[in-house]
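Practice problem: predict the structure.
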Amino acid sequence: MSEKLILSVLVDNQSGVLQRVASLFSRRGYNIKSLTVSETEDPAFSRMTIVTETAPEMTRQIEMQLIKLEIVRKVEVLRRENSVSSELLLIKVCAKGTEKKNAILALNLKYGARVRDFTPDSVTIELTGRPETIDEFVSSVSDFGIIELARTGLTSLECGGDSFSNDVKV
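Answer:
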């Protein structure tokens, strides 16, 4: 039985790191469901949030394979109870007519979404939140007709007051 695995991976902020990590997953036959990467508070490092599905007994093996890469400084498994996670959605929906626009705006209020672009025929909306909330919102607006959508994938931080990179040396 597979389960969702969320990894926070601290890597050197240099060219080719993304390709090296993605290649490791590919060579081992692991599918990456979501991957986000950005520079951290320390410009020497980048943080990757990798979401994959794997058998529970493979979690430790994935961690060990990642840490063997010289560009990987730290790997942490994030669980719902020890982390905060969010995803960004940009979605463009059909909105011809006042009635449709009002219905879409009512959904925006319900979910805390923001209008980013408004045309006579469409509305582009931004929403951040847990993947389940994003899925629910997409389902809610699908009746209007989805023109286009983009999702960032999950980004996560461990709960608490410490920095993930505190104990890592440059």
